[in-house]
Write a structure and sequence with these properties.
460 residues; mainly alpha; 2 domains; globular
Amino acid sequence: MGFTIQRAIGLLLLPVYTRAISPAEYGTLGVLIAVYGGVGVLFSAALETSINRNYFQLAKEPARQQEYLDSVWRFLVVYPLVSSVVLSAVAWPFAGEIAHADGEEIALTLVASALFVAGTTLPLTVLRARHDLRGYLWMTAVTGIGTVGLTLVFVVGLDLGVKGWMAAAALANAATLLTALAVVPWNWKGSFNWPLTWTAVVFSLPLIPHLASHWALQVADRGVIAGMVSGADLGVYTLAANIASVVMMLVIALNQAFVPTYARAGAEDGVQEELDRVVMLQIAVVVALTLGAALTGPPLVELLTPASYHEAAPLVPWLALGYGFLGLYFIPMNGATLGVGRRTFAWVATAISAGINIGLLFLLVPTGGITAAAVASAAGYLVLLVLIYAWAHARHNPVRYEWRKVSVIVAAALAAFAAGTATAPEGPAAATAVGIAWFVLFAIAAAGALYGPRVRFRAG
């Protein structure tokens, strides 16, 4: 819900943002956001999986568990911030060549990413593992409200454009880090155990190429097509990707909520039945989120943005479909990495998927434009899902699927999308209402597929 509210506020403010920033500036912002995510992968050193797994593996040794958490968090504060300064100095001479961004904008992007990693990677992982809802909501509230409020001040109020956007992100992430230190208290007297930290880093190193390939699938398309389409078209594509990214944010948030169950399945006995229920629920919700964005995203583009952005509408369903494949990919991947502890060679599947995505961009965009880019994104994520499923289930994996129910849910979603598209009226407000109606019908069908067989009636 924290992520949902944050993204919902961002969507509601699209009419404000898209009038304060031109499509060309929005395109530059999209590339900087791609940089933000890419360096974030390097700054985090892919340690989230290690933290999740070791939190439960060390549960019977509280002192060693705390020493591990203290040491890894110190590393995740110092390493990203130092790296952001070094990378800013290296990139400064090339300012203007990276999406027409100046040195200050690039530096703000790198520092904002480092602060985000420092303030969220370990704290949010620990809060989820502890099921600390209050602390988690404090963190997401500070991040969401701080980012939106500061963006309005700097971008709309002070008219600072892209630079103001990244400055707002940096300040909001700094506030998140301070909040994290209060919500997940740092043991200031604790020592830094380098061997323990290095063990965690070594465990995570094979996942860095994997996450880097994920980044390429998620946002590198904007960097690739920047030289193939106009600045305005890049801005339109970025807007469509930002609207569809609601699906990405929600499937990630959903997965993070269920991660402790996958981790427990690898550390405790008697969790299999609970894991089976989680798998089916996760599949159903991912399909529902994808359908909801595909039905309501296009009319929302026309409803919330000026006419210069309306060409983004037909791109949203394709981009949302790709993020839906991402949400389904998490399930076999969790079973392999968290349930069994496998992580080697997962990067091969993601690298192949990213390579296919980028190859399709170079092949199709020159003639098909930004629509071809959206289709290529969905194709890349489909390849990722298929390859990771094959890799994850080639050996033991605690994840099991009820294929009959999965088939019913997917078929119902396809039928609802086809019907919603065919019956959508001209006006964006009416089209949104019709899309919501078809989504509700799908939700009823999906709930019946999941829970209908469990309902029993007794006469007399």
